[in-house]
Amino acid sequence: MAQSLDIWSAVIIVSIAHSIFAINLLAVKGEFREKKGLWLLLFLLSLLWLQLEFLAIRWPFDIGVGVFYGTRHGSWLLMGPLYFFYMQSITRDGIKKWEYLYLLPFVLFTILIPVLLSDFLSFRQVHYGMLTPFDPRPEELTPLQYFYSYLFIFQFLYLAYFLILTRKEINRFVEQLKKNISNIDQALINWLKTTWIGVLLILIICTSFLFLLFTYTPLYRRHLDYIYVLPMSLLVYAISYKLAGVHWPKATIETGIGNKYKKSKLTAIEAEKYKKRLNVLLMEQKLYLNKELRLIDLSARLNIPNHRLSQVLNQHMDISFYDLINRCRVMEAKKMIQSSPQLTLLQIAYDAGFNNKTSFVNAFKKFEGQTPSSFMKSILK
User: Fold this and answer.
1) Distance CA 248, CA 208 (A)
2) Would you give the distance in Å from CA 302 to the centre of its chain?
3) What are phi and psi of 353, to 5 degrees?
4) H helix or E strand, kind and range, residue 281
5) Cβ–Cβ under 8 Å, residues 336 and 343
6) What percentage of the chain reaches a pLDDT higher than 70?
7) Cβ(203)–Cβ(163) under 8 Å?
8) In terms of Cα–Cα distance, which of 91, 78, 145, 82 is closest to 113?
9) Residue 227 CB contacts under 8 Å (≥ 6 apart), including other chains
10) Burial of 290 (0-12, 13-18, 19+ CB in 10 A)
């Protein structure tokens, strides 16, 4: 059956072309050589698959391979694990072996059963959508056909589950960074949060809007599914724009330090001694002016193990390494503002050890309760 090229089909074609271009561009840059790059490639291919599938259904065009039309069989079961593995490859050393079991629902319901039991869905499920068994019109369906209609809904809940896991992982990663380095690469954190929001928007549009449209209004038509294709295109564009033009920030930190001092025999007297040595070292040698200062560097200067210093900071000083160093930097910045008010705030931020103005402003507000510009105005009065 012929289908004219309307505006929405054109948008999808452009989106598909952009996805292919982005994948090739990132491949040329070598982004797929590391493990995190391979997971990113698979994630982008899953987005491309969904776009190609929708275009084939919309025109319509049957390529003769039933598994290709994966949304009927739960292809969204793949997106969540791939996204989670990609984030894990950034925030952790690797993926635990048992976590690969997250791919089992996709392999079973999207590949194996459809291959072994081809053409098991009803005509209406295939041609009018997997939610048709829930509309008022009667239809006799087998238990397996009913199961796949519920699976169609479950696949989006499965993606939501991985979004929750990933958000917790991002938060854990940020806290771990604060325990180990003094200047967090905000570009990396923004990247993690931006991609998370992008996947969340796709999920919200797919589940909330389309399901409500289908369930509570007579407005739903099959072609309206293009609504979820557009956010996919935007997400692919964001990924390609970010990684094609910006050097990928590497998270070179030691993870898990926070758990190593649980069985420590550090006494209160020893902790107090380390605190005094630490304060003297910071104030006299001003190590906090080093923008790349890490916990491991400070422990080496104090000649104590990393986990021992981490324990002193977290259990006996109730502060993270990140906050400790930035508090010292804020104190240094206040002295500079008072002694050299002719300097710009950006210059003061860099001279005090911050690597960008945003981190400087945020730290100043946290420890002083006001912005550095407000503090400067009060000094100049």
Assistant:
1) 34
2) 36
3) 115, -5
4) helix 268-285
5) yes
6) 84
7) yes
8) 145
9) 205, 209, 210
10) middle
Strand blocks (E) in the chain: none
pTM of the full structure: 0.74
3-state secondary structure 194-241: HHHHHHHHHHHHHHHHHHHHHHHCCCCCHHHHHHHHHHHHHHHHHHHH
d(CA 196, CA 188): 12
What are the tokens at 340?
């050299």
132-158: string of b/e by CB count within 10 Å (b at 16+)? bbeeeeeeebeeebeebbebbebbbeb
Structure token pair of residue 230: 């557009």
Exposure class string for 59-84: b at 16+ Cβ within 10 A, else e? eeeeeeebeebbbbbbbbbbbbbbbb
Q: What kind and span of H or E run contains 155?
A: helix 143-180
Q: Convert 236-259 to b/e letters by CB count within 10 Å (16 or more is b).
A: bebbbeebeeeebeebebbbebbe
Task: Please compute Rg for the chain using Cα positions.
Answer: 27
pLDDT digits (tens, 9 = 90+) for 68-115: 888 888 999 999 999 999 888 888 867 888 999 999 999 999 999 998
Residue among 89, 118, 282, 274 nearest 192 (CA): 89
